[in-house]
Each structure stands twice: as structure tokens, then as C-alpha cells.
Amino acid sequence: MKHFILNQVQQHSSQMPTAEGTDKYMVVIGVIAILFLGIAAYLVSIDLKLKKLEEKN
Q1: CB-based contact 33:27 (threshold 8 Å)
Q2: Is the model's pTM score more than 0.70?
């Protein structure tokens, strides 16, 4: 019984696609990088606008 269960688990795990084979992790990293750069650019633009307002007053 123990060998039967181990054999079934090994067969099932070998049929599952891996993240490395589908390159989905690269898409996730790309999306996170784009979001991070967008947020950083937005914060920099807000900082520049605030500096201009502070200089006027």
C-alpha cells in the first residue's frame, strides 16, 4: 500500500507543469517592476511639485 501511494504521488507530480517551464514567473516579475517604477515616478513628480510650491511661499 505504501509503495502504491508513493508511486501515485510521483506520477502526479511529474505531470504537473512547472513555473520554470511556462515562464509565468518572468511575467509576474515584469508586472511588479513596472508597477514599482510607475509608483516611484509618481512620487518623484509629487515631490517636485511640492518643492515648487514651497519655494513660492
Answers
A1: no
A2: no
For the chain, the DSSP string reads: -HHHHHHHHHHHHHHSPPHHHHTHHHHHHHHHHHHHHHHHHHHHHHHHHHHHHHHH-
* Containing structural domain, residue 53: 21-57
Count of domains for the chain: 1
Taking the chain (57 residues) in consecutive chunks of 10 residues, what is each chunk's mean pLDDT?
66 59 86 98 97 91
Rg of the Cα trace of the chain?
25
Question: Is 36 inside any structural domain?
Answer: yes
Please state, in angstroms and rounded to a whole number, the distance separating the CA atoms of residues 45 and 37: 12
